[in-house]
């Protein structure tokens, strides 16, 4: 029997503020994310707003307000706008670069396995994933997909935490079925003559 482990969902999501929002332990934060994403989706999808124009207009308004606030503050001896010193630390840039390096190297490894090694299993997996993304994407535009992703992020972890035992039982069953299917597919792929010959030469 496969044991997926019994780690807590909160720890699996990083155990920080983001995990609190996704699991609705911070109900205010979850509500803000849900309402903000719904309003933005409604504005851009149903209201016909353009994202680039919306961002540019809001930045323009903010800059003009801050400029006049700063000028009036110096004339009337009032405090300046409470804007913190915004600076990205070198450490955070290095962490982001390391994360990107891992993902890019993984993509290059997959591309190498397909293009150079001629790995048929990897090719089938990549083609299946890309086809599935293309098929799902044909029903929605990009903004709607992002909105659906936000809704799933705010609901799936919460539901999974509530019904973890029952979901794990179903996942074990799905894992067994998929494992047997992949074993059969692997046996079929081993019967393909040119693939078998290439593996022998390597």
From TrEMBL:
GO terms for cellular component: endoplasmic reticulum membrane. The chain crosses the membrane at residues 27-44, 51-70, 139-160. It is a multi-pass membrane protein. It is found in: Endoplasmic reticulum membrane. Keywords: Endoplasmic reticulum, Membrane, Transmembrane, Transmembrane helix. Pfam families: Reticulon (PF02453). Residues 18-202 form the Reticulon domain. It comes from the Eukaryota. The keyword NADP does not apply. InterPro entries: Reticulon, Reticulon-like. The keyword Membrane applies. One of its GO terms (biological process) is response to bacterium. This is Reticulon-like protein. It comes from Tagetes erecta (African marigold). The lineage of its organism: Eukaryota, Viridiplantae, Streptophyta, Embryophyta, Tracheophyta.
């Amino acid at each position: 029997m496969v044991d997926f482990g019994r780690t807590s969902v909160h720890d699996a999501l990083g155990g920080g503020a983001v995990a609190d929002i996704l699991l609705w332990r911070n109900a205010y934060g979850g509500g803000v994310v849900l309402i903000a994403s719904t309003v933005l989706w409604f504005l851009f999808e149903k209201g016909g707003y353009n994202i680039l124009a919306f961002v540019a207009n809001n930045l323009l308004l903010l800059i003009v307000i801050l400029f006049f606030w700063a000028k009036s503050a110096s004339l009337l001896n009032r405090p300046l706008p409470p804007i913190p010193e915004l600076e990205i630390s070198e450490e955070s840039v290095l962490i982001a670069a390391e994360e990107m390096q891992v993902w890019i190297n993984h993509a290059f490894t997959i591309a190498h396995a397909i293009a150079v090694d001629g790995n048929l299993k990897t090719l089938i997996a990549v083609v299946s994933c890309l086809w599935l993304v293309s098929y799902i994407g044909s029903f929605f535009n990009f903004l709607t997909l992002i909105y659906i992703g936000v809704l799933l992020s705010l609901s799936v972890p919460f539901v999974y935490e509530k019904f973890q035992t029952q979901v794990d039982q179903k996942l074990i069953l799905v894992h067994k079925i998929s494992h047997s299917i992949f074993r059969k597919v692997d046996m079929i792929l081993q019967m393909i003559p040119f693939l078998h010959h290439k593996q022998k030469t390597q």
